[in-house]
Amino acid sequence: MKKQLKKAAALLLAAAMITGAAAGCSTAGQASSSGGTDAASAGDAASGETGAVDTSEKVELKMYLIGDRTPDFDEVYAEINKILEEEINATVSVDFLSWGEHETKYSLLFSGQEDFDLIFTASSWCHYEQTVALGGFEPLSEEFIQTYAPDIWEVVPEMAWEQAKINGTIYMVPNYANEFGQDVMAVRGDLMEQYGVEQITSWDEMKEFAMAAAADGMYTFQYGPWYQYFQTEGLSTLGGAPKSGELVLYNAQDPEDLDLYYILDWDGFADYCKQAKEMADAGCWSPDALNSTDERQTGLLTGRTAAMVWNLGSCLTYGRQANSENPDWNVTLCDPVAALPKKVNSYINNGVAININSQHKERAMMALNEFYTNPDVYDLAMLGIEGKHWEAVGDDQYRVLDESNYGVSNNCNWGWNNMTIQRTEYIEDRTALDDAYDAMMEEWNANVKGDHIYDGFNFDNTNVATQVAAVEANIDTYYNPLVNGLVEDVDATIEQFRQALEAAGIRDVLAEMERQASEYAASKQAA
Prior knowledge:
Elements: H1 3-19, H2 42-45, E1 59-66, H3 73-88, E2 90-97, H4 102-111, E3 118-121, H5 128-133, H6 142-148, H7 150-155, H8 158-164, E4 165-166, E5 169-170, E6 173-174, E7 183-188, H9 189-195, H10 203-215, H11 226-232, E8 235-237, E9 248-251, E10 260-262, H12 267-282, H13 298-302, E11 307-311, H14 312-325, E12 331-334, E13 351-354, H15 361-373, H16 375-383, E14 390-393, E15 397-400, E16 424-425, H17 432-445, H18 465-472, H19 475-483, H20 490-504, H21 506-526
Parallel strand pairs: 1-2, 1-3, 15-16
Antiparallel strand pairs: 3-13, 4-5, 6-13, 7-11, 7-12, 8-9, 9-10, 14-15
Helix pairs in contact: 3-16, 15-16, 19-20
């Protein structure tokens, strides 16, 4: 098995770490906050298989995942358990918290002190910060991780561990996948050629193409390209701020800049709104955009727009569909923010934690090490059974055979995403669009933006919930028309918007946001 050589080295490392400790000292597991663990002393560990923990007694672990169990899930995990039993003398049973129930049932697992070992978690959307505040997750020291999951420690970047820290302590193992948070354009290449636009790599080039298309009677966008404008300025939305973070931005490209940019106090917003009006008046998007119920891809696929704006994967998917139905369109991919390093979503957007009440914390960590870094376990959890659900193409690709009963990456395997061993889908008949996607991904992965403290910040509006609701009540009246250029007088509308938000209590919101951001930054800097 390919894993064996790597595992042997890892076990030697773990053994060296333990035998190098002074006699009488506790192992990392014994130093944890739990009462009952399966950790052994350095002397006793020699009888086990790992050198880090006595695995002579078989352990059944329990894990909670988010979502719904697929028909073939138990069959797939039976195969996983065969490997886990061989490697660490443990098996894992899995319960699911469905999408509809995890909001109410997740915290009950901890308040009821339910006996389980591992659980999926994520910052903001899946109870990470809240559960840490409740004391539900086991603190994970560097020594503990290095001892029981040395392969994970080797793979996960320092930035991810820093993001996982709360008050200086790690409580989850974050996933490792570069999920880029920037949109791109799927653009009709035939129209680029027709309008003499060779590339779209900047705001000015994007605007030039859109104005040329408008002069030809063709819309380019579904809505005004507000995101593309502020991203070209290096700014990013702030997690938890009103209107999905859009009313308060931060300079994601400069880690030294800890200012928060309220858009009505930022000159760039007025500049954008005036350009948006110019583009809307020229016909770069429909004057009825605010009433449209079309999905993002509809305009491109129906030929009503020259482009669509979405994430890279979605642009590839619908670009392929557009080209298959209209081969002469030659849809390609363009990045209007090509000059800047790329922001990846926080690595703690998916992860796994250990229940503080687990009686087998060390073995749980070892099991997670298998899920995260053992290619055989990883492929099973992500793709299903080879020969039934998928087949290998070379060493690092896969071809789907039947995903109806398991599904690719459809069973909450995201908590241990590991881009170093994750297979990519094999494309039978490659096109220029596929090549453009691969080239862009290669460029982005080689140009990842450095960490910014606010990348992991998420505003808690509990203390100003009334004011936030009042602020957001003005979005349809002022904000949406402004960012889509659909107002008569930009300056006058901005002033009306400003007065409305002042009356709604925006200053209270900003003051609370500044306080939380300052405390968050201080805690990260002290870590």
